[in-house]
Specification:
Blueprint: H1 3-21, E1 25-28, E2 38-42, E3 45-53, E4 60-63, E5 73-78, E6 87-92, H2 93-106, E7 113-118, E8 121-129, H3 131-136
Parallel strand pairs: 3-5
Antiparallel strand pairs: 1-2, 2-3, 4-8, 5-6, 7-8
Length: 151
């Protein structure tokens, strides 16, 4: 297994661990399947989780802006293997969607989302979640596990 897959697994299972501590039944999906990385269930409530984990502090790839509707929250973990430097962000899907739409409509990069031309497809773009914005504290995403306590 390649190191990036292992890093991704560490992040996914860390997210599932945190959600389980909060009373959710966290079920990772099949690796590289289309859709959410984990389904979490609590009573009659069911949510999809997208997990992104990295060894370092880097911009987070979001793809071409067509985000999966089965995802309700993104859990982004930077420096996932370092217990001291680890940074965790819990971001609602609608915030990601609004950021991508704002970036697309205004044809500009925002503090939150960065848009780059796709080198392989000249007429399309890729979108990235700006890690510097995440680390800036200008939001309520850092360790925002409490959003799952009220679901």
């Amino acid at each position: 297994m390649n190191p990036n897959q292992l890093t991704g697994n560490i992040g996914l299972f860390y997210a599932c661990y945190q959600l389980s501590l909060r009373g959710w039944n966290a079920l990772p999906t099949i690796r590289n399947a289309k859709g959410a990385d984990a389904i979490i269930v609590k009573g009659k409530r069911k949510l999809g989780i997208q997990s992104k984990a990295f060894k370092n502090q880097v911009d987070v790839p979001l793809g071409n802006g067509t985000l999966d509707v089965s995802v309700d929250y993104w859990v982004v973990i930077l420096s996932v293997q370092d217990d001291i430097k680890r940074k965790v962000f819990v971001i609602p899907q609608e915030d990601i969607l609004c950021g991508v739409q704002g970036c697309t409509q205004n044809n500009v990069n925002t503090a939150f989302i960065v848009r780059n031309k796709d080198k392989n497809k000249p007429d399309s773009f890729t979108y990235w979640l700006n890690y510097k914005f995440l680390l800036s504290g200008q939001h309520n995403y850092a360790d925002a596990w409490e959003c799952f306590e009220y679901e």
